[in-house]
Specification:
Elements lengths: L2 E7 L4 H11 L7 E8 L2 E8 L2 H5 L10 E7 L14 E3 L2 E9 L2 H10 L9 H16 L2 H9 L4 E9 L6 E6 L4 E4 L3 E5 L11 E4 L5 E4 L4 E4 L5 E2 L4 E2 L4 H5 L6 H7 L1 H12 L15 E6 L1 H18 L3 E5 H4 L10 E7 L5 H12 L3 E6 L5 H5 L2 E4 L12 H17 L5 H15 L4 H7 L4 E6 L2 H17 L2 E6 L16 E6 L5 H13 L3 E6 L10 E4 L8 H19 L18
Parallel strand pairs: 16-17, 16-18, 18-19, 19-20, 21-22, 21-23, 23-24, 24-25
Antiparallel strand pairs: 1-4, 1-10, 2-3, 2-4, 5-6, 6-7, 7-8, 8-12, 9-10, 9-11, 11-15, 12-13, 13-14
Helix pairs in contact: 3-4, 4-5, 8-13, 8-14, 9-13, 9-16, 14-18, 15-18, 16-18
The site of 2-deoxy-2-amino glucitol-6-phosphate has 16 residues, from helix 9.
Length: 586
């Protein structure tokens, strides 16, 4: 995610303070950085693509400045580039932004009609121009900012400087986090506590639609009716390390807890009253899905949904196999490449291979401007934000969401009521306690996952999560396949995690569960109906949803079970041995 820092004070060290803050926010992931600072009565903006060191090399730290805002950009709209980096300016205003202004295109049309022009392809440049546009009418900074909070839709945390008031730093937010920190004869803004811990641990949490006007001595907070309000000053107790994880013990747990917001950000990017930002996929008569690891597992679920509901044949292949085997294409083929990083070597190689054959490509990618995204004919971005933990969680859920969107698009049916329920259902599922279940299985050397159809594909991801962070050998099996050999491995107390959400296959799956139970297995039964019976030892009930959206509710349970097992086994959860976040080698 993007990182914001800002400083206003009397000590003349605004540049260093803001840059130190950006370094402290590096953990959020970024592809460019920039700063705007007051030098005497001028505003200077310097920004660079790439690491913060690139930006630092362009700065003169001897310049005495008392006002600055800084930004690390994790691209969401517009490729990573110098021109797309923040801060962005329009006449008297300069801003840094974290979030997504969803209605930026309609705002852009209004601005173009009123003589504005743009250099970048970002929603942020539209936002700062719109602030300037309103200011020309209101001629009052607070009234202007209050007005735009009612016009901007989506999520935003903004740090704002206006040339008409260089003794103040302004800030406002909706959904994206922003804190105001209190120092001695200086005050700060930041996306997150780590950016200010070097100077103070006292901070104020800005709430949605609130506007802050900050001088070196005062912090004024206004509510959405522009009433001056009092806010509690909080004190951060903890280390820098704990602060960059938002208070969570591991990035993986933090990212699982972000899943409700990730679902909303992803679904809102493709569906409001109608579908949007989706290429015309209805013309294709057969689809190949190519990916690696967890992305491959998502592809299998995508296959299941598209074939079952849109009646289009789908072939799913692991990229490292697909690129060397004979594949059948024709002019009606679409190849979908799924990749969180957008840089996985095998997947990128497959993209280039099929493009040479003139086949249309769609990539489902999380990192904006990554190679796979840039080189595909179409791209549908997942809106998971930067994922730090090597084991993917929120990005996987976001990929599931995109395939649910594609299935709804191909069947022309928006499951609006169910979509609206999902964020709160996800929160409830994530807040459940899975530690007691982990305690039953964490000492085992082998753990089995079984399921049929879409439930088997979920088993595959649950098994991979467990393997990669707890180092316990685990295998996913089609439940009907056990009796053809594997059941010989089932012994007394062998843990078997059985998933059954597909009602049509439930009876068969339960008979397979009874087969392993009869041989002494310890069964954890994950289902979406409250079924009683003696064929399981533990039962987890997932709220029932339409099959197109159901996997989205199942996956956090599997991720958290793996997390709790790995934690009990004192594993390096965020950086498992031998693994890389992006496998850019073959
Ligand atoms: C996921 O937990 C794994 N770390 C790994 O399987 C990953 O999904 C795979 O390497 C693909 O990466 P990508 O999505 O960035 O292409």
């Amino acid at each position: 995610m993007c990182g914001i820092t800002g400083y206003i004070g009397k000590k003349g060290n605004a540049i260093k303070t803001v840059m130190d803050g950006l370094v402290a926010l590096e953990y959020r992931g970024y592809d460019s950085a920039g700063i705007c600072y007051k030098d005497k009565d001028k505003l200077i903006t310097i920004k660079e693509q790439g690491k913060i060191a690139n930006l630092k090399s362009k700065l003169d730290f001897n310049v005495k400045s008392n006002l600055a805002i800084g930004h690390t950009r994790w691209a969401t709209h517009g490729e990573p580039s110098k021109v797309n980096s923040h801060p962005h300016s329009s006449n008297k205003f300069t801003i840094v932004h974290n979030g997504i202004i969803e209605n930026y295109m309609e705002l852009k049309e209004e601005l173009l009609k009123n003589g504005y022009s743009f250099k970048s392809t970002t929603d942020t440049e539209i936002a700062v121009a719109y602030i300037d546009y309103i200011y020309k009418k209101e001629k009052d900074i607070l009234k202007t900012l209050n007005k735009v909070t009612n016009i901007f839709r989506g999520s935003y945390a903004l740090g704002i400087i206006c040339e008409d008031d260089l003794d103040s730093l302004y800030a406002l937010r909706k959904t994206s986090p922003l804190i105001i920190a209190r120092g001695k004869d200086e005050n700060y803004i930041a996306s997150d506590v780590p950016a200010i811990l070097k100077y103070t641990n006292k901070y104020i949490l800005l709430d949605d639609y609130e506007i802050a006007k900050i001088t070196y001595q005062n912090i004024e907070i206004y509510d959405k009716d522009l009433n001056l309000i009092n806010k509690d000053t909080l004190e951060f107790e903890g280390t820098y390390e704990s602060s960059i994880k938002g208070g969570f013990e591991h990035f993986m747990l933090k990212e699982i807890n972000e899943e409700p917001t990730v679902f909303e950000n992803t679904i809102n990017n493709y569906i409001d009253e109608n579908f949007k930002n989706i290429p015309d996929l209805s013309k294709y008569k057969n689809i190949h899905i190519v990916a690696c690891g967890s992305a491959y597992h998502v592809g299998l679920i995508g296959k299941h949904l598209i074939e079952k509901f849109a009646k289009i044949p789908v072939y799913v292949e692991i990229a490292s196999e697909y690129r060397y085997k004979y594949n059948f294409y024709d002019k009606d083929t679409l190849v979908i490449l799924v990749s969180q990083s957008g840089e996985t070597a095998d997947t990128l190689a497959c993209l280039r291979l099929v493009k040479e054959k003139g086949i249309d490509t769609l990539s489902i990618v999380n990192v904006v401007g990554s190679s796979i995204a840039r080189e595909s004919k179409y791209v549908m971005y997942t809106k998971a934000g930067c994922e730090i933990a090597v084991a993917t969680t929120k990005a996987y859920l976001s990929q599931l969401t995109v395939f649910a969107v594609i299935t709804m698009y191909l069947t022309n049916k928006i499951l609006k009521t169910e979509i609206e329920k999902i964020p709160s259902l996800l929160k409830n599922i994530i807040n459940e306690d899975y530690k007691y279940l982990a305690e039953q299985i964490h000492n085992n050397k082998n753990i089995f996952f079984i399921g049929r159809g879409i439930d088997y594909y979920l088993c595959m991801e649950g098994s991979l999560k467990l393997k990669e962070i707890s180092y316990i050998n685990s295998v996913a099996y089609q439940a009907g396949e056990l009796k053809h050999g594997t059941i010989s491995l089932i012994d007394k107390e062998t843990p078997v995690i059985a998933i059954s959400t597909d009602k049509d296959l439930r009876e068969k799956t339960i008979s397979n569960i009874k087969e392993v139970k009869a041989r002494g297995a310890k069964v954890i039964f994950i289902t979406n109906e409250d079924i009683d019976g003696d064929f399981y030892d533990y039962k987890i009930i997932i709220p029932k949803l339409n099959e197109i959206l159901q996997p989205i509710l199942v996956i956090p349970t599997l991720q958290l079970l793996a997390y709790e097992v790995a934690k009990l086994n004192n594993c390096d959860i965020d950086k498992p041995r031998n693994l890389a976040k992006s496998v850019t080698v073959e």
